[in-house]
Design goal:
Pfam families: Peptidase_M13. It comes from Drosophila sechellia (Fruit fly). Keywords: Signal. This protein is mostly helical and 633 residues long. It has a domain of 168 residues: Neutral endopeptidase , domain2 (Neutral endopeptidase, domain 2, Orthogonal Bundle). Helices cover 53% and strands 5% of the residues. The N terminus and C terminus are likely disordered. The structure holds 2-acetamido-2-deoxy-beta-D-glucopyranose (6 copies) and zinc ion. The site of one 2-acetamido-2-deoxy-beta-D-glucopyranose (NAG) has 4 residues, from loops.
């Protein structure tokens, strides 16, 4: 067995065109060199040094747009072809996706920038009571299907007050109302919207209490109409509803909100709901409809269909990519394991065992697709949706309703048990994820297939490029498992008192205090950034690497920079681009500069005169710990 494996890999090695291996590394190094802005020193503003010329040399906003564009080109080609037309595995799914695409690219009717009020009021045939069925969320109440905090294998319905971002949609509704003639309704809608905002402002709390209730308990506590749930779940059976678990926050708000609604005139209420539905469609349709924008739209709204097609007909390197990605993950896990040996946070044996078990269990998934392989599953998954090849807006409503139906489906199976074989991420995004993401409840990192394209990743690249870019991204995602929110979830994704104990311990709190010293948008993102880069660096160079002691310059494809310098530059490519504000993360230049500024080796790697002012390290063993180990091995 061992012998034949060896033979195989030799044969493969013989047939790999060597030129290609050299080329991809030369190309990557060239790309990095083209982005350099040498007017800045790497020591004063590293982002500008590494990325400063990106926007003047690239036609893309950033490298994400570049790989998304490659994905879209390939999918446009597929859609325009006859591939899969007589497919034996999932012909219906493929036909549905083509119909949706055809209507999206050929039907020119659109809502955006062109409000047609007669349509809003008369032709918009949705019954206002059905708004939840059509994916309209955040009107009066925010409803999500998620898993229970203490049981990651059980679906629950979470209810809370709408998110403040829903106010953009309300503002658009009020704009539409100004164009609308029936003054009486309009006044009613304005009054309703103002009242809701007022109630939300009054009751919004930093960390609201979450109540776990059965259906009857919920109905006792909050005057939500029974019809709300009948419409939502398509069942009219209290017994069935009583199997559901609700996690409810903002209870005072919900109580007062539904009391108010009960007594409010129904015409303006219905007009408001119709208008919000209209705004939802307007916000969901692509701004400009063309082949590429339709592909991007479909990635977000029909993820299973798009990923299935890409995976089967376009994606070439699943096997090679998977083995490289798993290898990177295992070196990251090994480095984190060494951190735990040093136990900088002085965890108790029980706490250490908790963190080790969690580390061990982190899974990785290439592409947001379920484990299930049967053609029946894929072919029927969108079976309840009726897409036409001629009416895009009707299709969009179908897609929104389909997404909601699929989200709710798990609630009605026995005990609302999560079916892991069929699980994939299907949430209410408007833009599909391209970057890897971590889910606490699944203890899983998903790497979208979009991401696994050059210049972000190529399986033929030298490991220094892979470990610095994808490695640091995976390091970031892994560290979400161990930041102040993620640490609460155990290896199986259930909230655990041991996690809480760790979070409350003094060394953990001190580590967080350090990271808080520099301004941030989101603390957990900051922690994941700092710890992720440190972990990726240590995983590649070994713990306590010191470039003052020897020079590491081993590469034929890179003459100018040493290995650690190249590592930092390649890492920064993830963040290169023009600089609009990024939601939920800090701006890219800050992210890069703060991350390298907290990696104690960075200053040595670039021979910076002043050592950086801040070295926030959390899990990583301190410098003293390492030097002690060197003296007394
Ligand atoms: C990052 O850039 C900021 C200016 O935008 C600068 O103040 C900071 O020193 C830089 N840090 C590093 C490590 O490059
Ligand atoms: C390089 O950075 C400097 C500021 O440090 C900036 O003024 C200049 O425009 C940048 N060069 C390019 C080509 O973007
Ligand atoms: C699919 O089948 C139809 C009818 O038999 C045929 O006309 C068509 O060429 C086939 N398409 C492909 C791509 O083979
Ligand atoms: C989860 O929490 C709820 C409410 O606190 C409780 O009723 C239930 O028994 C818990 N389930 C588990 C598996 O611990
Ligand atoms: C639900 O069932 C009740 C009694 O069985 C009935 O009165 C009511 O009309 C039903 N509601 C809907 C929306 O089907
Ligand atoms: C599907 O939609 C078309 C028009 O878009 C309609 O004529 C047809 O009846 C619908 N079929 C089903 C099963 O709803
Ligand atoms: Zn993150």
């Amino acid at each position: 067995m061992g012998c034949s494996l060896l033979l195989c890999s030799c044969l493969v090695a013989l047939f790999i065109p060597i030129q290609a291996i050299v080329d991809i590394n030369v190309a990557t190094a060239n790309d990095i060199h083209n982005n350099l802005n040498r007017t800045t020193s790497p020591c004063t503003n590293f982002w500008n040094f590494a990325c400063g010329r990106f926007s003047s040399t690239s036609e893309y906003v950033d490298n994400f747009e570049r790989v998304e564009d490659q994905f879209a080109s390939a999918m446009v080609e597929f859609m325009a072809s006859h591939l899969g037309e007589n497919d034996t595995l999932a012909p219906r799914l493929i036909r549905q996706m083509r119909q949706y695409y055809k209507a999206c690219t050929e039907d020119t009717r659109k809502l955006h920038g062109n409000p047609r009020l007669e349509e809003l009021v008369n032709q918009w045939t949705l019954h206002p009571k059905k708004f939840l069925v059509y994916g309209l969320n955040g009107v009066f109440i925010d409803k999500r299907v998620d898993v229970a905090a203490n049981d990651s294998m059980r679906w629950v319905i979470q209810l809370r007050m709408p998110d403040p971002t829903d106010r953009y949609s309300d503002r658009r509704v009020l704009q539409l109302m100004r164009l609308y003639e029936e003054a009486w309704y309009t006044r009613g809608v304005v009054e309703l919207v103002e009242k809701m905002h007022q109630l939300q402002d009054k009751y919004r709390a930093e960390n609201p209490v979450v109540h776990t209730w059965s259906y009857s308990e919920l109905r006792q506590e909050i005057p939500i109409p029974h019809s709300f749930f009948i419409e939502l779940l398509g069942v009219n059976d209290t017994e069935e509803l009583d199997h559901l678990t609700f996690e409810v926050s903002d209870v005072e708000y919900l109580r007062e909100c539904f009391r108010f609604l009960r007594d409010f005139a129904s015409e303006p209420k219905d007009t408001y709901i119709r208008a919000r539905q209209y705004v939802l469609v307007e916000e969901s349709e692509p701004r400009e409809r063309n082949p590429r924008s339709c592909i991007h739209h479909m990635r977000a709204y029909l993820p299973l269909g798009m990923n299935y097609i890409y995976d089967r007909f376009i994606y070439q390197n699943r096997k090679e990519d998977t083995s490289r990605v798993l290898e990177i993950l295992s070196t990251l896990k090994a480095a984190f394991g060494k951190y735990l040996d040093a136990n900088r946070l002085q965890l108790t044996p029980n706490q250490l065992a908790y963190v080790r078990a969690k580390l061990e269990c982190i899974q990785i998934k290439i592409g947001n697709l379920p484990e299930e392989k049967s053609s029946e599953f894929y072919n029927n998954h969108y079976g309840s949706a009726n897409f036409s090849a001629t009416n895009f807006l009707a299709n969009l409503l179908e897609a929104l309703a389909l997404r909601t139906r699929l989200q709710n489906a798990g609630l009605l199976v026995r005990n609302s048990q999560v079916d892991l074989r069929h699980y994939y991420v299907n949430d209410n995004v408007r833009k599909a994820r391209t970057s890897p993401f971590y889910e606490n409840e699944r203890n899983t990192i998903t790497v979208p297939m979009e991401f696994l394209q050059w210049p972000l990743f190529d399986h033929r690249e030298h490991t220094i490029f892979q470990h610095s870019l994808l490695g640091a991204v995976l390091g970031h995602e892994m560290n979400h498992a161990f930041e102040q929110e993620g640490i609460l979830f155990d290896a199986a994704g259930n909230e655990s008192p041991v996690g809480l104990e760790i979070r409350e311990s003094q060394p953990f709190r001190d580590a967080i205090k350090c990271a808080e010293k520099q301004p941030f948008v989101s603390l957990k993102e900051r922690l994941a950034d700092l710890n992720g880069l440190q972990l990726a660096y240590d995983a590649f160079f070994g713990l306590a690497h010191d470039s003052r002691q020897f020079e590491y310059r081993p590469y034929a494809f890179e003459r100018e920079f040493t290995a650690p310098q190249l590592f930092h530059l390649s890492y920064a490519q993830f963040f290169c681009g023009s600089l609009p504000p990024v939601i939920a993360h800090d701006r890219d230049d800050e992210r890069v500069n703060v991350s390298v500024g907290n990696l104690r080796q960075f200053a040595y790697d670039f021979n910076c005169e002043t050592s950086p002012s801040s070295d926030c390290e959390m899990w990583r063993p301190g410098e003293e710990a390492n030097s002690n180990r060197n003296v007394h091995p």
